């Protein structure tokens, strides 16, 4: 059970990009139901750009990769998800500092910092039917997995599982933040697209890290 | 999907190319990031009024770039707010010693991206957030009221003030004043189709309309059976009037806006009804704007916007403007 | 039928009421028969340029009433030419000692009704018949080419000449000159719905377009699979260019027109392609007009119009105009 | 077998109005197929106006009624059919002069004058797929019926029958006049709306006159 290297982080970003491309239409469909039908398009554009940046400018540390992903998402996604995911990756980058390998605790700390970034920008709380509803339980699960000694892959697996449940549970919620909130009660009965993409990314990160172990 | 496009991903860039070709006297277009700038920018010692947001609402905002209105517009992808670096580029192209006023429609994405740009700017930047949509009833349990039709009126009036040489404080105060006195509400008869999505944003039955829609193909607050023009206009006008409220004796600007595919013949018909209903309440229409100015691709529908005028706002409204979409 | 209307039979009258309310500075509206007249008509010693036709093509013609363009417009019922007495009323309201030039689009109904009015008029009346639609290939075995987009360009240029004080002979000569140098072609992606008919004027499959349509929801010359913007623009532009023909080195005005529901984002995109294709052929675009100016209710589609300029036409085009739909 | 009085002509106009109202949708449908979907609307508007004019201003002769119908159609129909039908009635009015009763020969002459009016204005010939394709055989039939001594009702019955056949036969024609001509070959396979309304009116006139006999 080793740490997570720069190469591993790059591989995770690449896999994340493939996953959002593969699920592009699903995310568009979810966003069409309670939003403006662009979340899949936004995520695909952002992660493609991130991959091409990460591949063209070699980064030395996991933190540097995360930071490059952050600035690329901010300057290529737009919409609500661009600044939110961008800030998440930016805070995660700061949290991991310039170590060359992340252990389980560092991964959990990165997730927690990322979530705090999203909250700072977007002011959403749990139950508002946003990506926070996937991220918050993911952070809790990650911390407890790290606390019981899991490495990056175990921490991410725990986080992903919790995020999936959290995302699924957004279905019954009435949105209070983002575009879906305009629908009022009509927003219930649909999964939040941002929560879904968060769960998707964490699941992919967990898988990639698991394989590399 | 019935559209005159090539690759969906290229729609905005190709459209901007056509716009640059169409209006060489009025504006120039920068790509990567995409920014539409007044032909004579930067205009020394004038506040630069800059706005932007997702594309698909044309002529908003790029069609309002020019003398007496916007110094620059920042068009994002369709229905997706632009990124901070695009906003920064617009600031860079237009700032000319008197600061920049950012006009932002209240959507989470626009607010966050413009906010980031403003934080990163090294010049004097002020922001006004337009939130005139009374369809969003409960603004504490939502992302707040959306910015819709009122945006055009604000951009015109503040653009006029900037053209006249008013400083950033005064322009910002005027923007806040317009924002506090303008209210809107819209209805959709059909849904728009986002090019990259390829199918309509929502499904509406043949005899249904969607009341309280925004401008992004979001479904509205509720669905109702399609009514006559009288009924539709009343459903839009009453909540607008009651919200501010607009009272007997008030002088207003009435803006009757097509969401895109509602033709002028219907729009003027609706406008006439709104004028009559306002007259019946003793509200005096002093200025009007009628046309497709804040649209949602090829959506059929309309919105009504009322701005409570005062002498200064009226006078600024009347000053010359020269942009692709508004010109007098 | 998804429309913002009350009784289908009242659409035109109610719409004109709204138009009158919207533009009190620019025009006034007479009813029974319906005529839209410049606010300051009659303008002494100026040729009165008068046009008209069925409604449903807005802003054509009433939106072009004002300084530098039309003295009056005569709106008929939807897609039905007005009657001679309406045309006579327009003549009566605007004739001011210098005669009247009637601008008539070449449709049997318009020609016959305007012809009757001209016969009955007791003032000096000249008529120009616009027939710019190259989609009508065989004009001897048909009612002849239709008048479409070129009408706007002709009305602007001749209106400018009248405003300047040119006499009836000169205005008529200019009108004939514009008519002889302007060509158009249009395409529909969807059919319009006439309010009194209640259903679309023709059926188009989801992947079909109708090429060579007129502006009345008539089916076009042929149906074809929907193409990319590149393909569509080429199918419109090539026959237009080849018809006159427009040659390398020619200076032209390019008019990219929306048939109603095609949004500006697509229209500018198509315009950019047309500019590029013309440049590739060495045809020089000197002036352009882009927007929904000659429409067919809520039809999706577009048309391209080319006018071969000369110095006088260009100069007249640039003179000030102040109407609801065109203003500079 | 008596002549056709002013009252008879007024009754025929009223019946014509009812007929076009009843067949309004059929005429709109025919016009939608090869035109602009307004012929039924145009005819209904025109004949309603004609009836109200004729009822409000008492006319003394058949010719006066026909003239009032003519001017009302001209000033209320618009389109191609307004001036064409208007001119037809105007010429018919001139043809009958100021007699107070029309015999069969007068009716045939009125129809012939009407047709010549349409031709003068619209320049269509037989085979162009217009109302002329109903009117021209109707005139021929009317003249021969009058020649064999028929009164108004017999003349109109012959005219109506020929007009019906003529209208039906427009189906196979390619239009060379009016809006349908823009369709070229595609105009074949549809009955011309103006020919149909001509047949409809003549049929109604024949019936009313027949009943009044
Ligand atoms: N204030 C917020 N805080 C956290 N997440 C938010 C907030 N607003 C929106 N989101 C997330 O963003 C997602 C929508 O992203 P996207 O569709 O890309 O942007 P936009 O809403 O601008 O079109 C939502 O599903 C939600 O998860
Ligand atoms: N030149 C013409 N000569 C005779 N009849 C004509 C001519 N042009 C059109 N028509 C008739 O007019 C009918 C159409 O009338 P209508 O629909 O009311 O007018 P419009 O074509 O202006 O919409 C056609 O069906 C045809 O019978
Ligand atoms: Mg979205
Ligand atoms: Mg969006
Ligand atoms: Mg017609
Ligand atoms: Mg017709």
UniProtKB/TrEMBL annotation, chains B, C:
Biological process annotations from GO: glycerol catabolic process
Signal peptide feature range: none
Organism: Halosaccharopolyspora lacisalsi
Alphabetized UniProt keyword annotations: ATP-binding, Kinase, Nucleotide-binding, Transferase
InterPro entries noted in UniProt: DhaK_1 (IPR012736), DhaK_dom (IPR004006), Dihydroxyacetone_Kinase (IPR050861)
Protein name: Dihydroxyacetone kinase-like protein
EC annotation from Swiss-Prot or TrEMBL: 2.7.1.-
Keyword Amino-acid biosynthesis annotated: no
Cellular-component GO terms for this entry: cytosol
Domain (DhaK) ranges: 7-326
Superkingdom, taxonomy of origin: Bacteria
GO MF, any single term: glycerone kinase activity
Pfam families xref list: Dak1
């Amino acid at each position: 059970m080793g740490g997570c290297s720069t190469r591993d982080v790059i591989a995770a970003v690449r896999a994340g990009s493939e996953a959002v491309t593969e699920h592009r239409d699903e995310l568009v469909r979810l966003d069409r139901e309670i939003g403006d039908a662009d979340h899949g398009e936004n995520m695909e554009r952002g992660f493609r750009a991130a991959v091409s940046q990460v591949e063209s400018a070699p980064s030395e540390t996991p933190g540097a990769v995360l930071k490059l992903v952050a600035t690329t998402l901010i300057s290529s996604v737009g919409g609500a998800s661009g600044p939110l995911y961008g800030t998440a990756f930016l805070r995660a980058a700061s949290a991991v500092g310039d170590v060359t390998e992340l252990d389980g605790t560092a991964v959990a700390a990165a997730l927690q910092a990322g979530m705090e970034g999203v909250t700072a920008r977007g002011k959403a709380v749990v139950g508002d039917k946003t990506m926070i509803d996937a991220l918050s339980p993911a952070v809790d699960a990650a911390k407890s997995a790290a606390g019981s000694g899991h490495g990056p892959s175990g921490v991410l697996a725990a986080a992903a599982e919790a995020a999936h449940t959290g995302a699924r549970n957004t279905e019954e919620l009435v949105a209070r933040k983002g575009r879906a909130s305009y629908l009022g009660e009509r927003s219930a009965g649909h999964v939040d697209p941002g929560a879904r993409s968060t769960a998707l990314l964490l699941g992919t990160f967990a898988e990639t890290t698991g394989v590399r172990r | 999907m019935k559209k005159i496009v090539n690759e969906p991903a290229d729609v905005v860039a190709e459209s901007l190319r056509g716009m640059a070709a169409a209006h060489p006297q009025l504006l120039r277009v920068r790509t990567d990031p995409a920014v539409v700038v007044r032909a004579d920018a930067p205009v020394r010692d004038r506040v630069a009024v800059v706005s932007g947001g997702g594309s698909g609402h044309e002529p908003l905002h790029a069609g309002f770039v020019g003398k007496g209105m916007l110094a620059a517009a920042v068009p994002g992808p369709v229905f997706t707010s632009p990124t901070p670096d695009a906003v920064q580029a617009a600031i860079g192209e237009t700032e000319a010693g008197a600061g920049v006023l950012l006009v932002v429609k209240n959507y989470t994405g626009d607010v966050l991206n413009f906010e980031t740009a403003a934080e990163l700017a090294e010049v004097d930047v002020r922001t006004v957030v337009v939130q005139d949509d009374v369809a969003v009833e409960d603004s504490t349990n939502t992302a707040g009221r959306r910015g819709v039709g009122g945006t055009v009126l604000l951009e015109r009036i503040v653009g006029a003030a900037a053209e006249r040489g008013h400083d950033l404080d005064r322009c910002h105060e005027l923007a806040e004043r317009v924002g506090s006195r303008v209210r809107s509400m819209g209805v959709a008869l059909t849904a728009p189709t986002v090019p990259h999505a390829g199918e309509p944003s929502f499904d509406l039955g043949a005899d249904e309309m969607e009341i309280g829609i925004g401008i992004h193909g979001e479904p509205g607050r509720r669905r109702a059976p399609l009514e006559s023009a009288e009924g539709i206009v009343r459903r839009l006008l009453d909540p607008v009037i009651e919200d501010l409220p607009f009272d007997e004796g008030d002088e207003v600007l009435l803006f009757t806006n097509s969401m895109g595919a509602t033709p002028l013949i219907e729009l003027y018909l609706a406008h006439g009804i709104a004028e009559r209903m306002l007259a019946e309440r003793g509200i005096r229409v002093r200025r009007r704007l009628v046309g497709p100015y804040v649209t949602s691709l090829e959506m059929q529908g309309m919105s009504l916007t009322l701005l409570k005028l005062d002498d200064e706002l009226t006078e600024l409204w009347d000053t010359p403007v020269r942009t692709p979409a508004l010109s007098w």
